[in-house]
Amino acid sequence: RRAKEGPTGAPWKEGRKGVRPSVPLPMLAPRQKLWSSPLEAVEIALEMAALGPEDVLYDIGCGDGRLVIEAAKRTGCRCVGVEIDEARARETRRRVREAGVDDRVSVRCENGLETDVGEASVVYLYLVPRGLRLLTPRLLSVREKRPLRVVSYMAPLPGLAHRTRRCAEPRAQPGAKFPLFYYVLSESE
Fold it and tell me: What is the pTM (predicted TM-score) of this model?
């Protein structure tokens, strides 16, 4: 096994299960069980974000890529999925190719805490509250250049007032209502 530098600059180990961090990385998303945003949440997120072909959407913790694939198909916008799990990122790249949107969607295998979102006009997040707290300063730095639209699924951005809150009601979970929060981060706010 050889050490390799990971997205945080910490050494990574290469072994039978691929490249893995040799030191724990800050947890952004629940990792005990990988949950994808339900399609009902994807629908609402796309409505809230009001994407157009000129937009650049970043999905931090993109998982299986369902949001970036749908966004590219429906709006023609450019999308960047960020996924820390190498195997999941490979699988997402495969899904992007199969969906025929690989000319508009790229998938990066990196730590979302270190992702440069400076070119994004929209960011989608499905992260645990701790992950949102760690990522919020990076999002706020973008607003110095231009407004940034943010949709957060399940948890609000700490210390910021959302413009809209809607709930997804997944068909697979009758009676469940999961919130999505929409923000426009700008210098005037």
Answer: 0.84
Residue 63, C-beta contacts closer than 8 angstroms, at least 6 positions apart:
34, 35, 36, 37, 83, 88, 92, 126
Q: Is the dihedral of CA 93, 99, 101, 105 positive or negative?
A: negative
| DSSP designation for 148 | E
Q: Do residues 101 and 73 lie in contact, with contact meaning Cβ atoms separated by under 8 Å? A: yes
Crossing angle for the helix pair 66-75 and 86-99, to the nearest 10 degrees = 30
Residue among 101, 115, 19, 18 nearest 53 (CA): 101
Q: How far apart are CA 68 and CA 146, in angstroms?
A: 22
For β-strands 148-153 and 178-185, DSSP reports them as: antiparallel
At 11, which helix (H) or strand (E)?
strand 11-15
Strand partners, 3: 13
Q: Alpha-carbon distance 163 to 17, whole Å?
A: 43
What tokens appear for 93 in the block? 């790249």
pLDDT tens, per residue, the chain with 189 residues: 334 444 444 444 444 444 444 445 555 665 555 678 999 999 999 999 999 999 999 999 999 999 999 999 999 999 999 999 899 999 999 999 999 999 999 999 999 989 999 999 999 999 989 999 999 999 999 988 889 999 999 999 999 999 999 999 999 999 999 999 999 999 876
